[in-house]
Write a structure and sequence with these properties.
The protein is an alpha+beta fold and 116 residues long. The protein has one domain. It has six helices and four strands; from the N terminus they run βαβααββααα. A four-stranded mixed sheet has the order 2-1-3-4, covered by helices on one side. β1, α1 and β2 form a beta-alpha-beta unit. The radius of gyration is 14 Å and the shape is globular.
Length: 116
């Protein structure tokens, strides 16, 4: 599983650093900052990569709240978040909240990397 994240965003980096501390061998961390390979591997442009977290699992790309669920499902310490936030009604609320937060983080960070 590969996790594509924006290491140039201080908030994003801080959160990903928490997950990295868990040292899960099955997770590869990919910084999308000015990374042309991330664009190729995900078939996303920089704007799309900056806008949301992305996870590749079994050849499929998951974005946003679904990507977080998949990540948490694979980190034992965070499986409780997966269990709770994957409940259908809760997931809908989580998805909306994620999109709002991700939008503001995108606005804050969009000039930190190439957006072509």
């Amino acid at each position: 599983m590969k996790v594509y994240f924006n290491n140039s965003c201080k908030i994003c980096k801080a959160e990903i650093d928490l997950y990295k501390k868990e040292k899960i061998d099955q997770i590869t961390w990919v910084d999308i900052t000015n990374n042309p390979n991330a664009k190729i591997e995900t078939s996303k442009n920089y704007k799309q990569l900056l806008r949301r977290l992305h996870v590749e699992k079994d050849g499929k790309i998951f974005s946003g709240a679904k990507a977080f669920l998949l990540l948490w499902k694979n980190i034992p310490k965070y499986k409780i978040l997966y269990s709770f936030l994957s409940l259908p009604v809760i997931f809908q609320f989580f998805s909306i909240c994620y999109e709002i937060i991700a939008f503001f983080l995108y606005l804050k960070n969009k000039n930190q990397t190439k957006t072509n």
